[in-house]
Design a protein that fits this description.
The structure is a single chain. The chain is α/β, with parallel strands linked by helices. It is about 30% helix and about 20% strand. The protein contains 5 helices and 7 strands. The longest helix has 16 residues, at about 85-100.
């Protein structure tokens, strides 16, 4: 995946503001603070294309990033408890509005923090994609925060925790050391070829 240009293109706070789907799209989904923005920045080799924050729940919009031949779509993070019920509902409608629109969606990169079991919200998202036959893979973020023993233990546990999704690709990822970046780039390249 060779990236000549990568730029912020548009932001949508409600589904009616979504830009038209004119390029293949790769969407990034996951809990608040799971590292979606960091992964996007590492993927395109930019420090601050996607804004990162230490405060969960900051990405409250669907953000589109234009690359040479495709778009990366950063979906709002879900599951942050300190957000009002009204805001959670708006995020849910926005995410569903994105998925229900007629878009050239090639793949969803579902992020799960490797240090913890998937949350109820993670499982709900996975089931949503299975039910709607949306292609996805799972990226296990924050891999660098585990030592060798903890990592082996979590990988073994994740096999059980994600047993219902047999055959789904798992990629370990670190925004700190770049683990998983090249593998992910190759996959994105493959799914966006016409």
């Amino acid at each position: 995946m060779k990236i000549e240009t990568a730029r912020f293109e548009s932001s949508a706070g409600v589904s009616s503001q979504l830009i038209p789907s004119t390029l293949p799209e790769i969407a990034f989904s996951g809990r608040s603070n799971v590292g979606k923005s960091s992964l996007i920045n590492k993927l395109v080799n930019r420090k601050a294309l996607a804004r990162t924050s230490a405060t969960p729940g900051k990405t409250a919009t669907v953000n589109f990033y234009r690359l040479d031949t495709l778009r990366l779509v950063d979906l709002p993070g879900y599951g942050y408890a300190k957000v009002s019920a009204g805001e959670k509902k708006r995020w849910g409608e926005m995410i569903e509005g994105y998925f229900e629109a007629d878009r050239d969606l090639r793949l969803v990169v579902q992020l799960v923090d490797m240090r913890h079991p998937p949350s109820a919200d993670d499982y709900m998202m996975l089931e949503y994609m299975v039910d709607r036959e949306i292609p996805f893979l799972i990226v296990l973020t924050k891999a660098d925060k585990l030592n060798k023993t903890e990592r082996a233990r979590r990988l073994a546990a994740l096999e059980e925790e994600l047993a219902d999704y047999e055959g789904v690709k798992l990629i370990t990822f670190s925004a700190v050391n770049g683990e998983g970046v090249e593998e992910l780039r190759k996959i994105l390249d493959a799914v966006t070829q016409d």
